[in-house]
Amino acid sequence: MLKNYFKIAIKVMMRKKFFSFISLFGISFTLMILMVVTAFLDIELGSHAPLTQQDKMVFLDRLELKLMIPDTNMIIDSTRNNGTVTVDTSFSYSERQRSMSASSAGYYYLNKYMSNIEAAEDHCIYSDRHTVDVFINSNKLTLSSSYVSASFWNIFDFQLVEGNFFGPSAIDHQEKVAVITQKTAKEYFGVDRGVIGQEMILDDQHIKVVGIVKTPPSNQLFLGSGLFLPLTNIDPRWLTSEDFLGGFRATYLAASSAKRQAIKDEIKKKTALIQLPNPEQYNRINVVTASFLENYAEHLLNENDPAKSRSIFLYSLGGLLLLFFILPTLNLVNINVSRILERSSEIGLRKAFGANGNDILYQFIFENIILTFVGGIIGFLLASLLFFVINSSQVLPETVLSFNYQVFFYSFLICLFFGILSGLIPAYKMSKIHIVNALKQNSNG
Amino acid sequence: MIKLQNINKVYRTKTVETLALNNINLTIPAGEFLSIMGPSGCGKSTLLNIMGLIDEPSEGSIEIAGQTLPDYNAKSIAKFRNEKLGFIFQSFHLINDLSIIDNVELPLLYRRVGSKERKALAEEALIKVGLKNRMQHFPGQLSGGQKQRVAIARAIVGQPDIILADEPTGNLDSSMGNEIMDILLRLNQEQGTTIVMVTHDESMARKTNRLIRLFDGNQVQ
Where is B24: in which H helix or E strand? Predict the structure, then answer.
């Protein structure tokens, strides 16, 4: 029975070339796009170096200082009854925000109040990205740098190509050393390795390269920096200022992803206890902590609420993926209706010779499964080809897309589901068709 | 073998009601070759379709091979059709995408007969109609007469008790028509298959055991 269905499915596919092309294009193109999108997402959001521990990280990214002032509302309610006016006055007291400043945190706040978070296993402090212009053979090169604490290397597992990371002693002694990415090495020295011990001149300072790391594929967050310097090498005014706001971020590492909330809670609690030095300027302090995904979504969407950003990001992504699936499905339903209608005479004949409604239904579903399988194979080949082209052409430098077989498998299952669904409606309709009417349609043979 | 009692068939649209069959009573004993004649639109095919359980009467009862129908549900009727009845159509109704042997196997598919046995039975049926050497061909490669012989092989492959043929020679020239008629007569005489044939051709009808005529839905002979 299945062999017969298979034969006819292949025959129909070959006979209706245009229809088959449209259907297969829909399925394979959907799969290809999904594979490429998920490969990019994997690069951006997957647990790869230097973010292997991302699911245990809590990012302290922003601090808000507010001036809240009392706000009194008075409501006067009067009623008139038999010539007597009764007045009822009620007051409600609340607060309203008069002013607010928000930015990354100041070193003073992170170092003094947030260095001892008990729920965290480790933490690091690093500066916002700074840009520095250097001139090589009269050509200007703009480099992006970050000043980082020694523990930065424990939390973000950059892949060392050669040399070493700098340790606490480099921080303590303000050593003029740097860890650079291969990309920066290539831009500055013309080679991407073999420059350990060589010096770079940045803002008239001689900085010795002690380590070269693999360039992370993503440009998000601090990962876009090509140059990492000891935290204490930053302009000392940044470190001595007692400002709560400006210039630095911290990342905490939890023992497990479930324990991230404890870190968030502790940071909030400790921040709430801080007595602000100038209450007439700011009397309320609020810290914003986020998981990696929340942090990513917040930066991407330019939102201020991490949880909300994460929801918007995930829902938008889900919506887009659904759209990717629904469009070819609707296309398939449409094509299937006309395709199956064309074969009503065959259906009538099969029913006359003993096929029942279910037999007809199964036959068309089987045909759609075959079609989806062929589409899946083409989709796999197309995606592999596209990956090869993107990876080998260096259109996106430092980006190596890798095929995610698990995603392909699930995408294929979803395609199969929609493939079956698209055939089910017209097949069900035709399985109920009256034999005499079906036989009267365009006849075969 | 087939007993029709008080069969009426009415086609209703919003504005018109057409009486296609009016109080038809007919008994066809096992082994008979009956032909039905009448002008176009007199209800011949409708009567054949009702006997073949692919159309339902508006009123009346049908008894085939001792079973009163349609007391069964759609699934049981499909099974009954598959086991007891074979169909031959004027326009052949072969599936162009399947080879000749696959076309002939069709009724056996729904009987859940194994692949090897199916092949053997289909081959046997094709030998009976003289098309053994055409088994791997496709319908598009055959003449009209050959197509109708394939249709006969398909109708007999499941060894049904009854064959219902709706103008089997209608699309063929007289020599091919005679060939088809010879095969049907042989089936009837040698294997005792009951055959009911609708035809416009008086000479073909005369070769059968009995002839009935319909006019405007009434049996007139």
Answer: strand B17-28
